[in-house]
Amino acid sequence: MTAALYYRNPSARIGAVHRRCIMKIMNTAALPPLPLAEWKPTCDTLHMWTQIIGKVRLKLAPLLNHWWEVPLYVSARGLTTSAIPCGDLVFDCEFDFVDHQLLIRASNGRTARVALQPRSVADFYRETMVRLRECSIDVDISPVPCEVEHPIRFDEDQEHASYDHDAVERFWHVLMFSDRVLNRFRTGFIGKSSPVHFFWGSFDLAVTRFSGRRAPVNPTADGITREAYSHEVSSCGWWPGGGAFEAPAFYAYAAPQPEGFKETKVEPSEAFYSDALSEFVLPYDAVRKSSDPEDSLLRFCQTTYDAAAEAGKWDRAALERIEGNG
């Protein structure tokens, strides 16, 4: 099965050969090694910095379904918020991983910069809030991090203070590759689908497809989880690793998980179902070392979605892009 089959449209098929040639040339440069152990202090620090900016967006942006107003997006220089309203102003914040700065740009013409360098979360937090106010953006956020064990308030966090420029640039290159491939995968679906977005809470890049049906209500779930998983989903993405899998990896899951999902054989052969994570996992290094990394990732996305859609009895004829229906 080739990646072109996933899209079921002529334009994708025409570009398949060209894409494979380009990927063979760019394989090494596009997919650098990123072992978690080597950059974990920087990863943890950057995680907290993105949470600060993410919480600014959360506080000011209007609520969207499944919390789609809060993520960041891969940009030509790093990660961006996109436009955020603030009274009569509009502004954005971008983690620029080329010049290694947080860039704040407001519609009143003001700009501000915060250096990305070895510094504590507390120091970054203080300067960022000052720079926002200099741009006429006055916002108060909760200083407590989300979705991490043993959270430390941003204004008190002296523990996380690392910044390895080279590791961050490699991280960004992995995000660019993943963003491009996940967006190609997204084109094969005409049902409800999320953007490809970076969630600063879990520190991962993801795209999610929806069956169109509501999920059963989970009375034990908190409000955030209930909103995120109010409908049946099949999701895939990339994260730098942690917890039960201490290495970067692509992942895929179905929620709620239908019977038979975890037993399905998926591709490529290096992919496996993790009972500890309750999802399929494809090690990043397996993709990085593949002769065609993009095809490997597309096969993982497609076969795990097939598993979710078949086990969950999705109306695939109505939801997927085939000749004549979208």
Structure description:
The chain has 326 residues and is an alpha+beta fold. The protein folds into two domains: 3-32 and 165-319, no CATH class; 38-156. It has helices at residues 10-30, 36-60, 121-134, 165-186, 223-228, 284-288, 293-311, 316-319, and strands at 73-74, 78-80, 84-86, 89-96, 101-106, 111-115, 197-199, 204-214, 231-239, 249-255, 272-274, 279-283. The strands form two sheets. Strands 1, 2, 3, 4, 5 and 6 form a six-stranded antiparallel beta sheet that branches. The protein has a six-stranded antiparallel beta sheet with strand order 7-8-9-10-12-11. A hairpin with a 2-residue loop joins strand 3 (84-86) and strand 4. Helix 4 (165-186) packs across helix 7 (293-311).
Overall helicity: 25-40%
The counted number of beta strands is 12
Helical stretch tally:
8
Low-confidence stretches: 1-28
Measured between the Cα atoms of the first and last residue, the distance is 22 Å
Strand content: 15-25%
Helix/sheet category? alpha+beta
**What characteristic shape results from the CA principal axes?**
globular
Q: How many individual domains? A: 2
What Rg, in angstroms, do the CA atoms define? 20 Å
> Strand-and-helix sequence, N→C?
HHEEEEEEHHEEHEEEEHHH
On the 0-100 scale, what is the average pLDDT? 90
Largest sheet: 6 strands, antiparallel
Give the oligomer, counting copies of the same chain as homo and different chains as hetero.
single chain
